[in-house]
Amino acid sequence: MASSDLHELAESIVDDAYDADATGFDDGLWATLEKSGLARLTLPEAAGGSEGSFDDAATLLEVAGAYGARVPLVETDLLGGWLAHAAGLEVPDGPLVGVAATDGASSTGAGAAAGGGAPDSALSGADDGTVSGTLARVPWGRSVAAVVALVGERVVVLDPSVAEITEGTNVAEEPRDTLMYSGATPLASGSAPPGAAQELALRAALGRSLLLAGAARGALARSIGYAGERVQFGRPIGKFQAVQQQLAEAGSEVAAAAAASGAAARTAAENGFAASSTAFAVAAAKARCGEAATAVARIAHQVHGAIGFTREHDLRVVTTRLWAWRDEDGNDAYWNDRVGTAALDAGEYGLWPLVTGSP
């Protein structure tokens, strides 16, 4: 399917389901995404997927971000589904989430717990095969059909219904729940693929970057529309140079976020997640999209004025997600540190090839 056709299909599906006043999991939208083959877009056919590319995923996730779609697309396709399939397990039906937690700390580091979970998540396996421990701030934990968790060198599929769930949310009111397991028997278990923890973290950051790029675009579109409608001193505020300058700045941030996240998706598709070029591109994308989120949200609320801060206005659907997502799966400081470390490691002769992806 051509990118333009996929964008049109995704936008029609997500737009039809849009409800600015609703919170929590949108089961109607999820059912439609499942039927259309978009819920598991990049997974192979053998895993129930549509064998789409990362460019396809970028198109879908940017649309989902622009509308604040209340479904776990990244968590199901890029994380939970991938992790289960990579471990040789049957991918469970329904919405999923993939997390990494082992030995009392997230295996992806304090800055970037894969799947959005908190870095103090920890699971441990007993000799009898059962699993105990806590998964903190699990995205959509109360709504998913299964949790696919990386525990040391094993991948286990857990039933969330046997966990003690403490419900929580991020600032955008998306579920971020704590799941406590005590002697839970996994639904399935397999060996983790090499480098699973690093890839899971990079996949989570890439998915979040694409959502951020979409949410930034959604905030800009709402701001341009409002500036053309709001009349003050006898003309739309969009005619004033100061407002035009703000919108132009927001536009440049949206373009930068789209370029950085799109480049990271293409690099991952071409080189795989084990490549240093992919790690660098994803780190740069998550950091740049986080910076764009801050700037675009600020400008959008400045353009809208006081009305934009009310719960009744749908601007909050995207700006609260910009604020929440910029800190999930590693914040700006974490990924900028990764960019700086990679640049220093590359040295004076390796930096340019690292940045450009050239030999």
UniProtKB/TrEMBL annotation:
One of the record's GO molecular function terms: acyl-CoA dehydrogenase activity
Tell me its cofactors: FAD
Chain ranges of the Acyl-CoA dehydrogenase/oxidase C-terminal domain: 210-316
Q: Which UniProt keywords apply?
A: FAD, Flavoprotein, Oxidoreductase
- Does the UniProt entry include the keyword Glycosyltransferase? no
Q: Does the keyword Flavoprotein apply?
A: yes
Q: What's the family? A: Belongs to the acyl-CoA dehydrogenase family.
Q: What PANTHER family does the entry give?
A: ACYL-COA DEHYDROGENASE, ACYL-COA DEHYDROGENASE FADE28
Name of the protein in its database record: Acyl-CoA dehydrogenase
* Native source species: Pseudonocardia endophytica
